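Chapter summary example.
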Amino acid sequence: MIAPMASSPELRSLPAAAPVLAALNADPRVWVVGGAVRDLLLGRPVVDLDMVIEGDAIAVARRLGEALDGPVTVHDRFGTATVIAGGHVYDLASARAETYARPGALPDVTPGSLSDDLLRRDFTINAIALALDGRIEAARGAFDDLDARVLRVLHGESFLDDPTRLLRLVRYATRLGFAVEPQTRALADAAVAGGALATVTPTRVGAELRLLLREPSAVAALAWIGAWEGTPLGIALSLDPALAERALALLPGDGRRDLVLLAAAVRSVPAVALAARLDELGFSARERDTVVACARAKGIEGRLAAAGRPSEIAAAVRGTPVEAVALAGALASPAGSSAAEGAARAWLADLRHVRLEIDGADLLAAGLPQGEAVGQALAAALRARLDGEASDRNAQLTVALAAAAR
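The structure predicted for these 406 residues follows.
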């Protein structure tokens, strides 16, 4: 540990820290740790705070929650708690030491010192603690590595104890633009080659993968993982960065960027196997179905290429998530515009929002009996509306009734 340093006024400048300082009155047992301190020292934005308490973290969390009028969630097994207030998330943990019964297992936790707590962390740059009263402590080499912009593990068994650190290595390196220290890279490569990630429950791997997919640097991160030997995530990843960027350029604001990127990387995986693995990784049913639909984008591309009229474009992608249409458009146009890419763009930007000014009640009021004919008539009116042949309510009603008569 380095010696305590002079007080750091930067902590007081953080919007997330000001309420804590007021509520806890610079309690000397409370330390801000991890990514928040790292990003503060790098001059990067800080939104949420992780805190280590030299004592009872749950008691401090309840005190903080009461002062900030925010809910407190307690995790008894690890002696941790979370407080949400003022748009910020505060994770509090008692200083602890960790041991691992076997590679990939959840840690066994015992009370420890601040030094113990820092040394249990993933990388040196995340093993820096800043007290509310301004003192600062860090693991050996943490500041040197921060200055050098390198990622280094704290001990040689790090990736074996917790193999999800392999995914965090990729996430931090691509997000921060940091290099990986050579010995750390060698340890990571050996852990991947040795199947370390298979020792972790799939849901833990999935949780880290979802965090990685939400990063602005996710394209680079997926390309990195795709270069690993074998299928360490239990699923083959192979990402074409240019394809991913084209799909993201087509994706509308209500689409899921993370799911498009994952789908672009798993297009070679058979649908049944893909769905099963996504379930194991803890993806929701909606996320799973979206990624599987995206993985079938080649077929969607073919239907889009054959569509001419707007109603045919809408029929080609009926029931298809926007993410899959964006990926289909990207597949269709590797070197420029194409009919399928243009059709995808038209549907994403405009056609999917087209609605009728009539509904089933209007047809029933006009004398059409209840039954399948109502749905068929509305479908005919929508086709006409899409093709510019029934722009107002009366025209749509006329088309619908004529279709029902036929």
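To summarize the output: Residues 360-405 form one domain.
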